[in-house]
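haha ok so turns out i had the wrong file open the whole time. this is the CORRECT one, sorry everyone. sequence first:
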Amino acid sequence: MLDDNGENYDTWYMALQLALNNCSIWPIVTGTELCPDWMTDPTGHEEWGLKDCEARLMILLALRKVSQNCVFRGMSSKEYWDRIASWYSGAGGGNKRTVSLLQQFFMISFKDSEPMQPQIDRIVCAAQQLKTVSFPIDNCLLAFLLAIHLPNSYAMLRTIITNLEAANITSKWVVDRIIGRNTTASTTSRAMLWLSMPRLAKARANHPKPTPT
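then structure:
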């Protein structure tokens, strides 16, 4: 089982790779065996999905609580594996591991071009892992760090959060507001599209396409 501080990562990697190879699902984890198209090969698509689920389960069962929290939102075994590698590969133990985690934590840069949830998960995971190497991060610090590094599209939310009393916010509260903003924006866009459909239909009816002569 992989220690949350990552000190046994190399041994863990080799042991789990052998186990996944033994089950003939390692190519799925590495991404070399791609999922067949469900329309052209429905049977192959279903079989690949079952193998991917088996691989995800094997990886989850080989992780402790902090690492499990860091990967559970992943959508495939490859995503699980890549996330773990990005956090532990080459990090080593002791101060080297601590420095690597601190860099992940403080040198964050949220991007509008990527989904917010995985970006937030990386920072929260780094904070959780820092605790395992005796470098706990204050929850209030995590909350404000998430807020001040929000992209410009979140300027209003960032201003609201950073003007609150520190005693009144937590990292979970901030994350809920960030994700809630995304959900609200998505719902509003869908609602606007739905409301515009009758007007579009009416406009088409009033301006029919000319009949070719």
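Confidence is low (pLDDT under 50) at residues 185-196.
again sry for the mixup
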